[in-house]
Design goal:
Structural class: alpha+beta
Radius of gyration: 58 Å
Largest sheet: 6 strands, mixed
Number of strands: 25
Number of helices: 3
Strand order of the largest sheet: 1-9-8-3-4-5
Distance between the termini: 190 Å
Helix content: 10-25%
Order of helices and strands: HEEEEEEEEEEEEEEEEEEEEEEEEEHH
Length: about 425
């Protein structure tokens, strides 16, 4: 009986020990840190951080905050879990890392002159029970180098092909390359991305092949880098093209109205790359006039004559090709001047003004005469009396008036009648 009790006592002791072990394990589990990727919204002691992106050489600011604090200190640690700041106390001797702000609920630090080695996860901790942490990922962008264009060394003849290669190194993530002709974007081959050894950056290469024309001469072919670490257009390289092409030719006369007896010249102008240096002058269906002299690009006439009329041709050569053009020369007779439209217009205007003035004077004189004549007629209207009517006004009756009128014919004082 006593043996059975002893065995039961031993069994109960073993059970107690197992229970204690389970309790200890549970306690350790509860003491495990609460991670930021499993945040309790109703936990006022849970730190809050945010991810940051910065280019190499820039400054990044890390902020850690809590809603409440039970007098526990906040702490920032780097990617190697080295403590940077514990509250306002510096823990790591790195002058690039500075304290911005430290309170019971917030800890802010900054890292200047950021390097690629600073890329990674940073941890903010608050030493409550249990310890709570939050992580912030710092993404460091590798700044791409200025692009380099290769493949163009010598001028290319019109119709030939040009193959250019653009390369930019040091970007993280890989940059994108774009080709431009002057301000217009053109398509090159897809970018080729290669990892750089000993650092987490990339080298990007793009190729462009063009069939050139004379319009491409002096055109600017540019390669530009597109990357989040730089503003558009900050990294751009330009390569001018030089295209060789045969000349296009024109003839420019000294005057549009060449006259007999005058000096005169025709100039042959060639536009090519290179500029033409050899010129040949010909007269169609005839020899050049005796007084015409070839002076390189000029055909000079010492004294024009009607016999110089004709079609003259110029041929220019620049070593790449030749171009020619024809010009018809018509010599005007000496003393004969071409009508000047401006002078004709001016003369016509003067004639019209003179005619208008004369008409105005005539109209004015006629109006004056009409006015004078009208006034004269008005003044003499009703005052004309014939000789027969004289004396009738003083007669007492009609019979007497008739007798007086008849007697007037025999009077000595006969008067003549005047009509106006």
């Amino acid at each position: 009986m006593s043996g059975m009790r002893a065995r039961q006592s031993m069994t109960f002791s073993a059970f107690q020990r197992a229970a204690l072990r389970a309790l200890a394990a549970l306690t350790m589990l509860l003491a495990t840190s609460v991670r930021s990727n499993f945040v309790f919204d109703d936990d006022p002691f849970q730190p809050v951080t945010q991810d940051e992106t910065v280019a190499v050489g820039g400054v990044v600011t890390l902020t850690c905050s809590v809603k409440e604090n039970d007098n526990s200190s906040l702490q920032w640690s780097n990617t190697a879990q080295q403590t940077l700041y514990f509250g306002e106390k510096r823990a790591l001797r790195d002058n690039r890392i500075q304290l911005v702000k430290s309170t019971g609920t917030e800890l802010i630090i900054s890292i200047s002159d950021v390097q690629l080695s600073d890329d990674g996860e940073y941890t903010c901790s608050i030493f409550t029970m249990p310890v709570r942490t939050a992580r912030a990922t710092v993404t460091v962008l590798g700044v791409p180098g200025k692009p380099v264009i290769t493949g163009f060394d010598d001028p290319v003849e019109e119709g030939g092909k040009v193959s250019l290669t653009c390369t930019s190194s040091g970007s993280k993530p890989p940059a994108k390359l774009h080709w431009y002709r002057d301000q217009e974007e053109i398509q090159g081959r897809p970018d080729v991305v290669e990892s750089n050894t000993d650092e987490p950056t990339y080298t990007v290469t793009s190729e462009l092949t063009l069939t050139v024309t004379r319009d491409d001469n002096n055109a600017l072919i540019a390669c530009a880098v597109d990357h989040p670490s730089i503003a558009n257009g900050d990294k751009r390289t330009e390569q001018p093209l030089s295209v060789l092409f045969s000349p296009s030719v024109s003839i420019q006369p000294e005057s549009d109205l060449p006259r007999e007896g005058e000096k005169f010249f025709l100039q042959c102008v060639g536009n090519g790359n290179p500029e033409p240096t050899a010129f040949v002058w010909r007269r169609k269906d005839a020899e050049l006039p005796p007084l015409a002299k070839v002076d390189g690009a000029f055909l000079r006439f010492e004294s024009l004559n009607k016999s110089d009329n004709g079609v003259y041709e110029c041929e220019a050569d620049n070593g790449i090709g030749m171009g020619d053009i024809a010009h018809t020369l018509l010599v005007q007779e000496a003393g004969v001047k071409a009508a000047d439209p401006t002078a004709m217009s001016t003369s016509s205007g003067v004639d019209h003004a003179v005619i208008g003035g004369v008409v105005a004077v005539i109209v004015f004189i006629m109006l004056c005469l009409l006015i004078v004549l009208g006034r004269y007629l008005i003044r003499h209207k009703g005052t004309y009396l014939t000789h027969e009517a004289k004396g009738s006004d003083d007669a007492p009756d009609a019979d007497t008036a008739i007798i007086n009128a008849e007697g007037g014919h025999s009077g000595v004082d006969d008067k003549k009648e005047y009509f106006i």
